[in-house]
Specification:
Number of domains: 2
Strand order of the largest sheet: 6-5-4-7-11-10-12-8
Pfam families: Glyco_transf_17
InterPro entries: Glyco_trans_17
Keywords: Coiled coil, Membrane, Transmembrane, Transmembrane helix
GO biological process, one term: N-acetylglucosamine metabolic process
Distance between the termini: 30 Å
Shape: globular
Helix content: 25-40%
GO molecular function, one term: beta-1,4-mannosylglycoprotein 4-beta-N-acetylglucosaminyltransferase activity
Number of strands: 12
Bound molecules: 2-acetamido-2-deoxy-beta-D-glucopyranose
């Protein structure tokens, strides 16, 4: 990303792009998506390879949910084969060295050196490594993913939203054009709390949800944020409870947080135990990693229903992964405007604008097929009746929420991204490929 160029947007977006170009990496949101601009910071420039980067979005390793009701035909589990995994002899030739004490690293280079030292020289060898080795790898990353945010959040810079236009033509398939007598409360449900980028994404998300109330003098509703986490990653590796350790960062929201410790769910714990016992041959075939993800989501939804019987049935449930950040504007519309009778109580599919690497890549208009359709809005009543929600529903059979948010697949520092992929269900794309130095 060394070569730079000006934003390649049409004149009509010039103003917007200028804005984008001064908004900080972490907290910038794009207006075209009706996402609320909440923070200002360093100048930004679009990377030259924007088109390629965005098309890379389609090859991302996001896994399909296991609990989905109506899977998209193309939403198959990605093949977890990797060139390097096809040559396992190379990985198994030398025994892996497990350090007796995990060294406290300062830089990412130190992590990579340590990985080489341990004999982990390819993404495949890390994926197939035994549990005790993977635990060490996860631990190595801790100093890098538990860092403070690069810039503090400036609440005073939040720009309040205008009152919503319930007659907006882009919404006429969903809304009947009138306002509800009172705004709905929001119940935000996410899963998959990992390390660095997830905490940043959570912070972004909570303020974005809060901004959806900013046009109201006296909102009169109390939102609920359901945050779940586990002492294990999705591949069964031991990890810290990142949210618990950094809860002070979220102090404004804590009174409204429903914190769920996933390890309290017996079905989930059994699945993690199974993952930790898994031999590398099983891992190679894909193992059970996707079921941990599915069981986790079910556990969260069930616990929410159980613990919060007083949340009204008409509350708006937002259900998406942490890297799918809903837009304040879209939440505002669904809070305040009346849905058509035919729209029922959802599920309404979130259409996210893909910004795989950072918030700087959002200038281009995209076709519908380039959008990311995952995550849903529904009501609490709907969730209670169905007892579960899927992340993906059939986009031809269900209503779609336009400009519902953004999808930030690989956002964060390099260490953050490594860490996310390390835990991710389909972590075949774990990069880089550390190699021993030539003179070693
Ligand atoms: C969220 O926004 C509303 C209205 O803008 C405000 O009254 C409330 O204090 C905010 N909540 C938090 C947790 O900051
Ligand atoms: C987990 O379970 C324990 C004991 O059953 C309970 O006391 C605790 O509140 C639960 N914690 C969370 C965060 O769910």
């Amino acid at each position: 990303m060394s070569r730079r160029r000006a934003c390649a947007c049409g004149y009509r977006w010039l103003l917007l792009c200028l804005l984008i170009c001064i908004v900080s990496t972490l907290l910038l949101m794009n207006d075209q998506l009706d996402v609320h601009v909440t923070n200002l910071g360093t100048p930004l420039v679009l990377p030259e390879e924007e088109a390629d980067e965005v098309s890379a979005e389609r090859a991302e390793p996001d896994s399909p949910p296991v609990v989905e009701e109506e899977p998209e035909p193309e939403a198959k589990a990605p093949s977890i084969q990797d060139e390097e995994e096809l040559a396992p002899e190379q990985a198994t030739e030398k025994p892996l060295l497990i350090p007796r004490e995990v060294p406290a690293v300062k830089t990412l280079l130190d992590v990579y050196k340590e990985l080489c030292h341990m004999g982990l020289t390819s993404p495949g060898s890390i994926r197939l490594a035994p549990t005790e080795v993977r635990d060490v790898v996860v631990k190595l990353y801790q100093p890098l993913v538990e860092r403070q945010p690069p810039a503090p959040f400036h609440r005073e810079r939040m720009v309040p939203l205008k009152p919503p236009d319930c007659k907006d033509p882009a919404w006429k398939h969903l809304l009947d054009g009138t306002r509800r007598s009172a705004p709905r409360a929001v119940v935000d449900v996410t899963t998959g709390m990992g390390g660095g980028p997830e905490l940043d994404l959570l912070e972004l998300r909570l303020w974005e949800i809060n901004a959806s109330l900013s046009h109201l003098k006296n909102p009169g509703v109390k939102d609920l944020y359901v945050i779940s986490e586990s002492a294990y990653g999705l591949r069964g590796d031991v990890k810290p409870l990142h949210f618990t350790r950094q809860r002070q960062r979220f102090k404004d929201f804590l009174p409204q947080v429903e914190h769920i410790l996933l390890d309290n769910c017996s079905k989930y714990s059994r699945e993690i135990e199974k993952l930790r016992q898994e031999k590398s041959t099983k891992r190679k075939k894909g193992g059970t990693m996707f079921s941990a993800e599915g069981i986790q989501r079910l556990c969260v939804l069930k616990t929410l229903i159980q613990r919060r019987p007083t949340v009204p049935d008409d509350a708006l449930v937002i259900f998406s992964d942490l890297d799918e950040v809903p837009s304040a504007k879209a939440i505002q519309m669904l809070r305040v405007c009346q849905p058509r009778a035919a729209a029922k109580e959802g599920p309404w599919i979130q259409m996210h604008y893909p910004m795989p690497y950072n918030l700087r890549v959002g200038c281009k208009r995209k076709t519908k097929s380039q959008m990311h359709f995952q995550g849903v809005f529904a009501t609490m009543g709907f969730l209670r009746r169905k007892k579960s929600l899927a992340l993906r529903y059939n986009i031809r059979k269900n209503l779609i929420v336009p400009n519902a948010g953004i999808h930030l697949t690989y956002v964060g520092s390099r260490a953050d991204v490594d860490y996310k992929l390390l835990h991710h269900g389909a972590a075949r794309s774990w990069r880089p490929k550390p190699r021993p130095p030539a003179n070693a």
